Structure formats: structure tokens, C-alpha cells
Amino acid sequence: DPPLSAVKQCEAAARGVQADALLAIGGGSVLDVAKVVGVLLAQDVALESLFGIDQIPGKGVPVVLAPSTAGTGSEVTPIAVLSDEAANLKRGIVSDFLLADHAVVDPQLCRSLPPGPTAYTGMDTLTHAIEAYTNRFAVPLVDGFALESIRLVSKNLLRAFHDGADEQARYGMSLASILGGMCLRSVNTAAVHALAYPLGGRFHVPHGVANSLLLPHVMRFNMPSVADRYRAIAEAMGAEDAVLAIGELSRAIGTDRRMREFGVEEKH
Fold first, then answer.
1. How far, in Å, CA of 78 to CA of 75, rounded?
2. Which of 60, 63, 62 is nearest to 75 (CA)?
3. How far apart are CA 265 and CA 268, in angstroms?
4. Burial level of 121, CB count in 10 A (0-12/13-18/19+)?
5. CA pair distance 17, 72, nearest whole angstrom
6. Of 24, 69, 185, 257, which has the fewest CB atoms closer than 10 Å, so is most exposed?
7. Model's pTM, two decimal places?
């Protein structure tokens, strides 16, 4: 959840060395900052003018993204989400001009990621895939990406959580993250992410944490409308019931939290 100030600081540093390209290594926040700064270095525009859909006038300087989490999938999305701390809001920028010139995805960069961030970023990946697959605007080709991402997360996330050096599990999660990110250009997310944004903006709940809190509840609400797709999700997870399978995974990796733990009360 990078603040606007981080973008402006990064832009100032890049201009200070007359950078003509950017390399970002880190989680989704780091990658999103680099994508936006790349545009600011090449286009004579104010940061605040970019928010919304297709508000970027042209391409930025070359940007190479190397994710160290699995993950937001930001390395392959045309999206950046920033925190407006003054307004207590998370604000999105969506444009094909945010797509990276190169994505270098090396699971070795995730080996030292602690169990907590491994769990929460993994649940973010799973949320991308589930929301794309059960979306009102689902696309057949993207369905394949989404189901494979779901399968990979269910097979590898618990292993990566318990053993960060498990190279096969890290590889599976990195691939799942890419596939989940590729769902976001053609289909995008839905109610989980929509509800997660105010949790991040107002209560500063990390994005993956907020998604983990909300995912099973939104799935339970939506299930009657897309029962056939929930059966396919359960099958991809090797389970009988998709919502129960998500709950079991969440408990196993410690993401079955409550909003009150983050200061969110019923009155909110």
C-alpha cells in the first residue's frame, strides 16, 4: 500500500540521477511505485491527474519488474494502487501504459520471504483467480489462467508457508501469481477487492490481509449465483466444497483473522 509520498520521493531520486530506465525488486507496493514513476519521468503530468482509467497520456521510461512475493501479479498488470494518506483512501491507476517492458520472475527472490507475508500475498493471488473465474464478465481464455492459478495455490501455498526454501513450492506460487495477475487485464477483480480497499485506506490493513479476511464471506454470498463455477474451484483445489476448502487453508496458514483485530468495529 505505497503512499503518494513514496512515489514522489522515488521520482525525485530518479530525476536526481537522470535515470532513463527503472528496475524494481520487491513486493507489489514496490512494483506499483516503479510503474507510476516510469510514467512521471517521461510524461509532463501531475501524479494526481493519473488516477482512474486510461488517464495516462503516453508511455513511460523502460521499466523492469522483479517480484519478491507471490503475490500481487503487479509485474504483469496495467494497474497501480496507491494510498492517499490525507484522504484515507486507496486510489487506482489503470492504463496499458503501466504494463512493464519486462517482467523477470525468479522464485529464488521469494526464498527469504517470512511465513506471514507468504501467506497473505498467496491469498491475494488466490483472490485474483477466484474473482476472475466467478466474474460476471468472465472470459474463457482467462478461465484457464484462473483455474490453474487456483490449483497451484492450493498445492503449494501451505508448503511455501512452512518451508520458504522449498523451491518447487516457491516456483508453483510464482507461476500462480503471474497467472492471477494476467486475469486482471481482461476481467479484473470484484467484491473482495472493492471491500478491501477501504480497510486498507482507512484502517491500514495490508492488502493481502484484507483480502484474506473477506474472501470466504464474499464467496459464501456469491455462491448461489455461480454454483457451477464454485464446483469447478473446489475440483481445482481437490475438495468437495470451495468455501470450506478456503477456510481450511486460511486456518492452516493463519490468515483466518477478524476485522476487530485491526480496529474495525461494527459501527464502521
1. 9
2. 63
3. 6
4. buried
5. 29
6. 257
7. 0.94
